[in-house]
Structure formats: structure tokens, C-alpha cells
Amino acid sequence: LHSFPTRRSSDLWPRYQNPDQSLQFLDNVSLTRGKHVIKFGGEARRGWANSIKDRYGKGRIQFKKDGVFAGATPLEDFFAGDPAAGRIFVGNSQRSPSAEWYAAFVQDDWRITPRLTMNYGLRYELPTVIKEQNDLFGNFDPSVGIVQVGKQISSPYDGNHKNFAPRLGLAWDVTGKGTTVVRAGAGIIYEMIGFNAFLAQLGVNNASTSGINVIPTANSTGVTPGGGNIVAGAVNLPGSALSWTTAGPVFPTSSASLNCNPNIITDINGVPTPGTPCDIMAVNQHLKTPYVSSWNLNIQHSFTSNLVLQVGYVGNEGTKLLSIYDINQNNPALDTLGNEQSGRPFNAKYPFLHVINYLSNSYTSNYNGLQSTLTLRSTHGLSFVAGYTWSHAMDYLSDNRGINAMDGTRPYLEYGPSDFDIRHRFTFTTTYALPGRKGFGQMLEGWQLNSIVTLQTGQPWNVMDTGDDISLTGEGSDRWDFFGNPKDFTSGPTAIPYYSGNSSSACAAKALALDGGNASGPMSTSLASFGCYMKGNSMMLPPAIGTFGTMSRNMFRDSGFRNWDLSVAKNWKLGERFTAQFRAEFFNVLNHPNFANPAGANVAYGFNDPSAGNFGCGCATPDVAAANPVVGSGGARAIQFGLKILF
């Protein structure tokens, strides 16, 4: 085992949320006046749900003590019954959130000339602030502390009333013959922030149970002081507070023993035990609605009535996108007690708070792509669509689950290629109806071939050390130092070779050089503790303890995707009303091996952790890694037969 924590697999449950009801009303009216077609309308929507998010409701036990084990490995600590820490949810997280969204628009399609048409319009959106029917939402104000809706604040964050979204489009028939058309457009689209952004940040490292629904605000024993009436949250406990014996129970049963305040001392198993600071999630009081600005320009030309080529540029930029990072991140240089708590910025004022994951609008994204399509409509039984895209996508975060930034004091370091940044992608789909002739049993007619070819370059994968805590911040998302060519770490069917301690002379020499020849320097010390990875002429070394690595986000890529699907169909005419079709379909007809992305760009597949095993390995086909074998794409050759009756 290479330094990974052992924990109970049920620490994410119970988790329940569904939109119980959603009401939507929309209508629009169109008016034609000469060369203008004017359309206007509006929309009103209301959604509400019942939500329970008791993450750690069954408790979590960890058998790792900041890199130092009672035994040689976490597994030995497990068998020795020596847990390092625990976390359990207390209280009630059941909430009834609701929100309303309103929108209105007006647009005009203006046929300026027979060859030029302009479309322009304006949309206004008014999202209301999420609310809970009993005001059981909390937040954190750095100047005041923990606050609750209906107590110190009237809403979790301020409303947005300036969400105007203009649109503009042009279509120009260059020759007047309809053979060459130029189209251009631009516009702004606002995002609808869902309940999950506030209630279920399950991707956040170290989040307690994640959300403004479980920020404890009640002034009672066992919860964080705040002056409210929310008694809910996940409480951390030291290993000494856990009873890992057959007598049990594992966690203390007294509510007085479950608290976040280190100034409250309780007796646990005969040992005076101070409370352990809790983690919370906070929301920027001035949270804005994220939006995307998009623009495009394309030219479409018809060579014949059946053959059309379209080439276009597409660009967009996301603004005020949701971001999340720890604003109470420990500073090892100020951590005088060495407990990853005394160096936190808010520790002196709020000693009962550990991680404060802060939801705000700090992130952006951008995409630029050249997109081309060649289309042949059915000609002598043959039709096809060939598409090629050359693009580049950059962002800070590629989804709304809210994965922590590596360094909460420098979230700008997360800017890099998007998880879905595919530089080159080619697809070719074709259908060919073979010429037929009359014969016995219609065997010489009704045959058809169908084919889909997909070729694309690799997607990025990010390194995230969740087990070593080399930075001494407890964020669980450290990256290491990398030297060499990132292409050497392209993922494949095997893991990137790992070398423990100083077993690699190349890694040892590099660490020694970085230490200026001092064999006891910080890099050599880290190397001895955590080892290194090396492949080709490149190596990945752990940074000095108490620092972050220099690697950028998503600097490695997987091996890409190549696939060819083929099918053969035979049709029989059964009178005038019925047709029988037999199909033989071959998925991945060449049986070409494709390997999953180690970091799970499309799935939750995590071989991107240097503190765990199989680092950098695409150890499964994409369909298996996505828990979708056979039906998903990327698996081994699969053949299926079908018979269909059409009438």
C-alpha cells in the first residue's frame, strides 16, 4: 500500500434530493409588419424540493495520522484498532428550498433586403434568491461570524436585478442564388443556478456535509455558536474519542461530546477532550448570476444541390462563473502549534471553524474553435457527413461540483485546459444503399451499409494528491513538481512507474540539485518520504514539505479516442404496408483498444492521485470506467443482431 487513508465507503450517504414540483408558464406572441417579424413573450417558473444531505450520517473513520502511522500502513492501523480521526453528522439537515425565475424578451427578424436578414433582441432575466420555508439557511460573514437567515440576515445573498441579455444575428446571401451564405451572431446567455450549488457541494474536499443548509448556528452545546436555531453539521473527532472495539459504539453517544468548539472540554472515554473545529461552506453575500458571451461566424457554400461545405469560427467566454476555495486555509509558516489550525486566518476570532469553503464568482472560461462540416445528401444511394473541429478550451473549473482550488490563497493557479479540451476531433458518418436487382427472395436488393468513424486527440487529466498533505494545509488537492515533457506522462494501459524513497538515482540527483547539493535539503527530505514518478526523460517529484508544487492544472493528457462502428442492414418488402429489416451491428469493428482518462474527465474514475495506486493509469476501457459496459462507447468489439418490423 502506498500511503492512502482507509475509510468507510458510506461516508457520502444518506443523500436525498429531488425537485418535488416545478411549475412553469410561458407564452409568446408574433406580429408580422412588412419586413419585420416581431416576437415578444415571457416566462415564469417556480421550483421547490425536499432535501436531505446527511453526508457522514453513518460516520467516517480514517486510519492515517498526517503521514505517520501507528503501524507501517493504514491497513495495519486498521487491524490494530488505532483510528486517526473520525467525522459524523449530527442534527437534522432536512430542508425545503424554493426559488422563482422570471424572464421576458423581445426580438425582431428584419428582412432588410432579399439577400440580407438581421435578427436582434433583448432578454431580461430575474432569478430570485433561494429560500427555505423555515429560514434554516446559514452563512458566514468574516466581520460578524456565522449568521442565519431571519436572524442576522434576510437572505443568504443579495438578489440580481441587472441580467440583461442582448442578441444579434445576421444572414447574408452573397450571390443571391442561395449557394453561398454568410452567417454571424453574438449574444449573452445567463445560467440558472440550481439548488445543488448551495446544498450539495459533494465534490468539495473537506466539506463537512456541504451547504448553507447545515451551517450550525444554535447557541447550544455541541454546535458552533451563532445565535440561530440550526443544529446540524459534521463534527470532527480525534482518534482517542473513538471506541474501535467490539463493545462499541464507535462514536460517542453523548451530544455534549460532539462539538466544534475547542474551548469546550468534555470527558470521552475517561480523557478530557476539547472540541474539534468544524468545516462549513459560505456564500459570497454579493453572489452574481454567471453568464456566457458567445459569438460565431460561418460560411456555407453549396457546390451542388446535394454537396454543402460549412466552415465557421465559434467562440464563447464564461464570466462570473461559480468558484469555490478555502478562505480559511492554514498557513504553515504561521501554524505555531503544528496542528493545521493555528495558522488559519480566522482562527483567532473563530477558533471553532476549520475549512471555510467559499462559493463566489471568481472563475472564467473561454472556448475558441474552428468547426467545419461537409455534407452530402443522398446521391445514388450514398450520403455522408464529415466533421472536423480544431479547438481550445480553457477554464478554472470544468463543472459546477466545486472541487477545491489547490491553493485557496492563489485560486488563479487553477487556470488551464478544460477537462473537455479536445484539440482535434474528426467524425465521419455515412450511409450507402447498395444498388439492387430483382432476384429470388429479394436477396439482391434492400442492402444498406452504415458507418461511424470517430477520431479525437486526448483529454487532459489533473494531478491531485489527496492523501499526503505535503502542503500542510489539509486541502487534499496538492500538486507536485514536474520536470520534463508532459507527453511522457500520457496515460495508457499501465500506471506511471513509481520509485520509493531514493530508489531512483535520477530522482535523487534532481532533488539534490534543487537543494544545492545539501543531502538533507527540503526536496531530498520530501523525496525520501513520498517517493517520485518517472517515465521516459521526465519525472514528478514531491515539493518541499509545507509548500505547493509547481505543476499546472490539467497538464497531462490521455491517449485519445479512436473508434469505428459499422452496421449492415437488409430490408424485405412484405406487401405495401410491411417491411422487415435485419441488422448486424459491429461496435469497434477493428477492436482497437481505448483507455479511460485517469482523472475521470467524463466519469468518476480516480487514478490521478500520486498518494494512491495505479497513478496515471487508464486501467479500463471508457465504458467500464463509466460504469456503463457494453452500452457505453470505447469498449472491445461487440456484435449484435436485430430484426425490426416496420408498418
Instruction: Report the C-alpha radius of gyration, rounded.
Output: 30 Å
| Total E-strand runs | 31
Largest sheet: 18 strands, mixed
Low-pLDDT segments: 1-14, 66-71, 202-208
Task: Name the average pLDDT.
Answer: 88
Count of DSSP helices? 5
* Residue fraction in strands: 35-45%
Distance between the termini: 61 Å
Percent range of helical residues: under 10%
Name the structural class.
mainly beta
> What overall geometry do the principal axes of the alpha carbons give?
globular
Describe this structure in words.
By secondary structure, the chain is mainly β. Helix content is 5%, strand content 42%. The strands form six sheets. It has an 18-stranded mixed β-sheet that branches. The N and C termini lie far apart (61 Å). The relative contact order is 0.09. Residues 1-14, 66-71 and 202-208 have low confidence and may be disordered.
